[in-house]
Structures are given as C-alpha cells and as structure tokens.
Amino acid sequence: MSKHLVIVESPAKGKTIEKYLGPDYQVMASYGHVRDLVPKEGAVDPENGFRMKYDVIERSEKQIEAIAKALKKSDDLILATDPDREGEAISWHLYEVLRDRGLLDDRGVHRVVFHEITKKAIQQAIEEPRDLAKPLIDAQQARRALDYLVGFNLSPLLWRKIKRGLSAGRVQSPALRMICERENEIEAFVPREYWTLDAKVERQEQPFTARLTYLDGNKLDQFDLNSAELAHDAQKRLTEAANGELRVAKVEKKQRRRNPAAPFTTSTLQQEASRKLGFTASRTMRTAQQLYEGIDLGSGAIGLITYMRTDSVALAGEAIGEIRGLIEERYGANNVPDSPRQYKTKSKNAQEAHEAIRPTSVRRLPNEVRARLSSDQARLYDLIWKRTVACQMIHATFDTVAADLVPGDSRHQFRATGSTLVDPGFIAVYQEGRDDAQDDDEDKRLPEMAEGDTVQLEEVTADQHFTEPPPRYTEASLVKTLEEYGIGRPSTYASIISTLQSREYVEMDGKRFIPTDTGRIVNSFLTQHFDRYVDYDFTAKLEDELDAISRGEKDWVPVLEDFWGDFRDRVKEKEENVTRAEAVQSRELGPDPQSGRPVSVRLGRFGPIVQIGTKDDEEKPRFAGLLPGQKMDKITLDEALELFKLPRDLGETPEGEPVMVNIGRFGPYVKYGSKYASLGPDDDVWTIELPRALEIVAEKKKKDAERFIKSFDEEGIQVLNGRYGPYVTDGNKNAKIPKETDPKSLTLEQCQELIAAAPERKGRGRKGAAKSTGKSSGKTASKSSTAKKTTTKKAATTKKAASKTGTKKATAKKTSTSKKAPAKKAPAKKAPAKKASTAKSGSAKSGSGDSRLSAQPSGDRGSE
Fold first, then answer.
1. What pTM did the predictor assign?
2. pLDDT value at position 1?
C-alpha cells in the first residue's frame, strides 16, 4: 500500500515522477480538468453573486473512481498539478470532489509545485508543500465566468442575427478585429511613387554603392523625387557634376554592439518557432509539452525543458552558473560576460511565473539527445537550447564605416555605409529571427578611404519604387501584437488562432491571415454594436484586473459585476433593435435587367450569396453563391448577374444521365443524374464542356467502384475501401477489418461480429458534462444539490442560473499546514471553500483557452 497519493495532470509525466519519489508514492493523473460548468444556460448566475453550477465531466468519472479507490489506501493526498492558475483550479476541483465523497476527513492534503521534471526539482517540491492558493483559483474562476457570460450571450445573438455556428469570445474577438483592421488598411492603401539614385563606384578594384542623400544642398526626403522626370533630371546633373569621379568628403568609423535576446517566454517561443521552424502555435505548444513531461534518454524518462507556460524571462541562479560554465568550455572564456545577464519581463500583464523556458540542463546537448527525439522535438529543443546559451554570452561587435562622397565642387552628396562583424559573440550560437525585415548584420565591406581621396564613378542609376501597405499578420506577428497590447495570455494564443480558423473567420494566404467575408461581418457587427468589448484597451484592462485577482489585490465578484451590468443591457438592446438585414450587411447592387427586381449581396446560411428579389415579392427570390476569390464588399452588379447563369446544362452521359455544372457550398461541381463530382483545379465552371465533364464523371465512377468491395443489402451492411484501409459499416458504426483477413471473403456473420465489437461513433458535441454520477460533485458553489436533478433557470442575458458559487469563500480554509510533505496520518485541515466550488473548464482548460488538452470537448460555446 502506497502511503502517499500524488495527483498530476498528465500520465506521461506521472511515470517519471513516480520513479523519482520511490515506492511510498503512487502517482496518478487527473487527465486535465475533472469538472466543468454544466453545458447549458444557467451555469453562471449573475443575479446571485455569480454562483456557478458544474458537474463532473463524463470522461473523468472513471479516473475519479480510480483516484478515490487509491486514496482509500493512502495516508494523504498530494496535489501536484501544473504551477499556474489552471493547475491550481484543477487541484481545487479534485479536492472538492473528493471532499464531498468524505474521503478527506482523516487524510492530510498538500499542494506542491515544480517547474521542471527532474529528480532534484520533484523531491524539493515534496519537501516544500503549501496550501491551495485562493487568489489563483479566484482569478481562474473569474476568467471562466467571463468567458462563459460572453460566449453564452454573444454567440446566440450572432446565430440569430447572422448565421448559426458563429461564436464570439472575450479575447478571440479583439484578435479578429486586429486582422480585419489590417485588411482594411491594406485595401485603403494608396501606393506613392518615389525614386532613389545610387552611385556605382569603385576604389582599389573593389566596387561598392553609395546612395544620394543631399541634392542641391538639401537633404532628400523619401518623396522629393516622386516622378521619372525629376529623377532623370537629377541623374543627368549628378553625372555631369561628377565627371567620372567622386571626392571623399568625410569618413566616420564606429563600433556597434548587439546584445542577445532574452530567454524564451511562451509568446516568444511561439513567435520564433513560427519564423524559424514554420510551426503553428499549437504545434509548438504540443511539442514543448512533450519535452517538458519527459523523454526517455536510455535510463528512463526525464524532462528536457522547464515549464513552457510562462511570462518570465528570469533564469535560476543555478541554471545561469551551469550555462556560463558550458560557454567557457565550448566557446572560450572570452565569450562569458564579466557578470551574468539579468533580464526583466516587459509584458504589461505578466502572470504568475517561475522562470523562462530553458533546458533543465544545458549539458544535454542537442546533437547528443537528437537520436531519442522526434523530428519536431529535436528541432524545438535545439532552438530552446541555443537561445538559452546565447542569452548568457557576450555581445556581438561590428565595425561600421560611413563615407560621404561629393561629385566635384557641387552641393550634392552620396553616402556609402559598410559593416564588418569583428567579434560574433552570441551570434556564433544563435540569432533571433525577424518579421518582415532584412538582416542588416551581414558583412558589407568598404575599401579603405580617407578624406580627400577620390573614387571612380561607373554610373548613376535611378530606380523607381512604390510604397507598400502594411503586411498581413502571420501567427508570429499576431502573437507579438496581442502580447504588446496585453490581450490574452500565453496559453490562450494557440486556442485563439485555432478558433478563428475553425469558425472560418480567417483563411491563410501562405502563412498570413486574411479575414473571410464571414469574419469581416462578425467583426463589423461587434465593433458597431459591442465596441467597448472588442476594444483593445478595455480587454487589456480586464486582463490587468484578472492579474490583480491572482495576486490577491482584488476580489473577483466586483470585477464581474462591473462587467456584467452594461454588457447584459447592451445584449438585450441589440437583440431588440438590430435587424438581421443590418447585421448581415445586405448590400444592394442594382436592378436585375430582366425582372427589374433588386439584386443584393449578403451572408447566407452557408456563406456569401447574391440574391435577386426579396422575401416580400410574390415570386420567390433567386440565390447564387459567390465564387472563390469574390468578396461581398467588392462584387459588382455585372459579376453578380453572371452567377445566375448557373447551372449550365451540358448534355447527357452515355447512360442517359443529365449532366450539368454548378457552384455549391464546397466549390464548383459536375452533377450526373443524382450524383456529384468536384471539378478539377484547372476546370472553369463557365467554359467546361461535355467531354471534359464526362472525364470527371468517369474518374468519379471508377473511384466509387474501387471503394465498394461487397454488400449485404437486406441487412444494410457494406464492406468498403476507406482512407485508412478496408472496413465494414452498417451506416451507424464502422469496424476495422483485421489485416490478416481478406475483405472479399467476409461472411455476413463475420461482418455482424465486427460491427458488434466496434466502438460507438463519437458525437460531435460535448458530451456528458452535465451527466452526474451521483457520487461526484455536480454541485453549485454553495451547498446546493447536485446538478443532475437541478432545473436551471435561464441565465445569460437577463436570465438566472440555478446554481451557486459563493466563491468569495472559495478557499477560505487551508489545505495543510505542513512544511514537509506527507506526514503519516496527518489530520487533514480542510482546504479551500467548504461552501463553494468554482467553475472550471472541463475541456482542455478551456476557460482560458489553454490548449494543453485541446482534444477534449469544450463546454463553452464562446470560450477563448
């Protein structure tokens, strides 16, 4: 029997930790959150102190039973979930569930935290337990409640006013606004012409270039030469004045230093992995999680990096010492600065954090561990290792030279600049990537020159340029901008980006975001009618307040009260006063020449459409979808009328099936009889003829034939070829066919056995969060009854919820007072909140958008 039961979030790190702690400890995983708000209106009740109603998540019930069973055989409970608000809330929820079952009455409860999974860090954490941190729990609860209230009020409003399936979120919506505003800037941008004049010169057989900086004694501004006429006139005068050579009027020599970048935070890691590795934010976090939780390097798993959700750029003194020692050994003592580099967090809203992301030991060199890592793990570890080592190295030193060159005795002047890397310093290990910028640290050498020397002029060139609009956001630049505004938190960025894409609010042009028509309409609706709530400063201020709650400086309920009153009234007002036509931004293009009825464009159920007529006409309106690339705000009347020439009848197949082409929800297609086939990327729906359409039909029929293996029609069972191999289906369940079995030889009985043994299909929606086992705490925050039997009063806009939170008392009592971990049979001190439980996302920490378990269902329609 294990004396001490330790709970972590993930089973991957559980095995490693159990190995470090020894036989007296049993380590089990909670698999993320164990409770969530009930997935319906009424989970948060603003009318009763924002009390919350939650229940055990269905997928967690088995694990809670297993934890409860193990706890009965243990002396005490050690809560060792992640060291942030989410981890604190997970521990608190599990504590509440187990306490309500009476399993903690005679057992001690301890909270321990660690920031790296190494033997030393784990054992030190066990020796230094603490109480559950009420401020962290309150801050997480406030965030979850805010996200719920926004999601369960704004999202249904979008469904009613625009179309179903849309969502709005407290942080997601300002991010969408950024992308839309950047697109508006690009569209409104008017390019300006300007010219530059360069002198191609040579000295001592070394060619170089000098840029014109003064003309007629006046310093040139960017747009002084804004036409070919002015540029070519200046070119002619400069050439004549020079008469084949330029005189060196002045030479300036300086040294420039460049310091290394700070070690990684979550945000900068996501940005740099995007620039250098091409990783998405979610891919970066998924891989970092694996490196943190532990990799088997041959003698058991060990964590390779510190905790990857942090705003801090600090490094532990012990780590700095190890890094400086490694630098001296590998790169020489001259690359170690006299004193360690100390970095300060710049983030306006730095949340609780321990230190920056770094290797748990820089002695584990990337090339030595690469064989044990996946490709993604190796590349990300290499990036983190190099950045960490470089941050403690000396600066890079450049020699710079600038020479002013004058043609003859004129008042014109060119300037040539050069730069030479003298001492690479940290650049020998790592150099930070940049967004939309050229690297200016490459060597650009100039020949030796002194004042009064002359250089040979080959020619003066005139080059035309046009100003360019600001670039669209990449993942890296969007994350950087969100952080600069203080919007969201490191763990939310991956989730924000994922939501914008899954809701089809944005699409990708290469690696850059372009808002879709749907995204722009949602953004326009929110900025017009809920401007305060998508305002950058307002969102950042709310993050500040959540941080203040986490530090114990503010109570969470008044923060929610300040937010809720105006927000509730605004939702109610817009629901009553904004028409659907206003919301979808219907735009009339002109009259239809044939019928005289108005032609308009608007957002329909499946996307942007053009429409002839209105719902009030006697004749029903006609509709047509926009083509890929067509935009609602750009389409003209002529372009819209062209869309109504579809469908085009092309003829018949040899079997007599009618053939036509059209554009549907998923793009252009050919229809033959009652079946469909997509057109190829090079096929044009307007010009395609019958022979090509028949080729597409033949290819589709061939594929369908190859997919079909056999069927038992009376029983409705088919054996088919699928994307991942042959399978059996009855339309409700799909069953894999064993590799050693020939699909063609399957009998009806064998097919029925395979289907019976196959798992049920998983539903798309979030299941079970509302399902209570009766043993779990499907409770409101106070002593209200379990959620299963409780009828919820409608809450959200002006509606009430049936549950209660009373989180003001959330962690009123302490969990333990022990200084050393698990004392045998220590009398348990009641941990936080006898009467209250705080709602926590039953999905991957979905209240804050944390994506660490993002495969789990989310209970919040509008949550970040």
1. 0.73
2. 54
